[in-house]
Amino acid sequence: MLTYQAAPGIDVISSHTAIPGLGFVPINAFVLHGAEPILVDAGAMVDRDEFMTTLRTVIDPGDLRWIWLTHPDFDHIGALSPLLSENPRIRVITTFLTVGIMGLFDPLPMDRVYLLNPGQHLEVGDRTLHAIKPPAFDNPATTGFLDSKTGGLFTSDCFGALLQGPPPESATDLAMSDLRDGQVTWATIDSPWLHTIESDVLARRLDDFRRIDAATVFSSHLPPAPGHMLRHLITSLQAVPGAQPFSAPDQAALEQLFAQNVSGNVG
Ligand SMILES: [Fe+2]
Ligand SMILES: [Fe+2]
Fold first, then answer.
1. Phi then psi for 179, rounded to 5 degrees?
2. pLDDT higher than threshold 50 for residue 267
3. Domain residues of the chain, as ranges?
4. DSSP letters for 125-136
5. Mean pLDDT on 27-45
6. 68: part of which helix (H) or strand (E)?
7. Alpha-carbon gap, residue 1 to 12, rounded angstroms
8. How many Å lie between the centroid of ligand 1 and the Cα of residue 259?
9. With contact defined as beta carbons under 8 Å apart, do 237 and 135 qualify?
10. Cβ(37)–Cβ(93) below 8 Å
11. Ligand 2 mean position, distance from CA 76 (Å)
């Protein structure tokens, strides 16, 4: 796990997981510095302690005012609970559905949440957060946002990619073909329902997204990408309905992995 500044006032807390036979999945959280500092997602459950230690190198958790929780998957909620315990001022910007899902295993106190739906916005100190629904997602609770202060577009799982090595600090450091292939593979795994969408329907949805004027695109599962790459990221998604659907390793493949002595995390 490491940190780097991706844009003025935005730090990335970057981790990744290796999936045998498939590649590397970046797992990002973001710290937005400002009048009311925001943490976007909270790392993976398995990295909870390391996440807290790493977070302290870029901000005192006592200074955080908000956590934007894009959705309650295990790679996004790692340090959520300890942060809420450590700093009673933090409120969690998220959706009703996220609160419901969290309620099944680690309930969020209702007076600590701020419910914001796609299309709505929230003034937060010196910035306005405009909630959006990314065009691809693996959890119906998902919301991203456009930050008025930096032009950062936060897209949660959308635009993620399986990479051939540990993630660089910018998507510009990836070969365009690797980026496209990695994005398509990721989307077939994370959003397999894209295969069931008529391509003209998806095209209209993506056109709406293409009109967003973003300075930087911050996916949870891709190195930050400058805004001019948004059209490339969208074009990759357009290819997903016609791509080969993901076929997960079965027991025979697993035994072959064991025979090859491959180590690492699966999933
Ligand atoms: Fe997810
Ligand atoms: Fe995710």
1. -60, -50
2. no
3. 2-247
4. TTEEEEEE--S-
5. 98
6. strand 66-68
7. 10
8. 31
9. yes
10. no
11. 6
Farthest CA pair distance, the chain: 56
DSSP 218-257: EETTS--EEGGGHHHHHHHHHTSTTSPPP----HHHHHHH
What pLDDT is stored for residue 214 in this prediction?
A: 97
Distance from the alpha carbon of residue 183 to the mean position of ligand 1, in angstroms: 15
Query: Which CATH number applies to 2-247: 3.90.1490.10, 1.10.3210.10, 3.90.105.10, 3.60.15.10?
Result: 3.60.15.10
Using a CB cutoff of 5 Å, list residues around ligand 1, an ion.
Answer: 73, 138, 157
What local confidence, expressed as pLDDT, does residue 262 receive? 58
**Is the Cβ–Cβ distance between 36 and 181 less than 8 Å?**
no
- Describe the strand order of the beta sheet including 144-147 as a list of residue ranges: 121-124, 127-132, 144-147, 152-156, 216-219, 225-226
Per-residue model confidence (pLDDT) at position 263: 54
| pLDDT tens digits for range 9-31 | 999 999 999 998 899 999 999 99
Question: pLDDT tens across 239-255, in order?
Answer: 999 999 999 999 998 89
Query: Residue 108 above 50 pLDDT?
Result: yes
Measure the CA–CA gap between 114 and 94, rounded to whole angstroms. 6
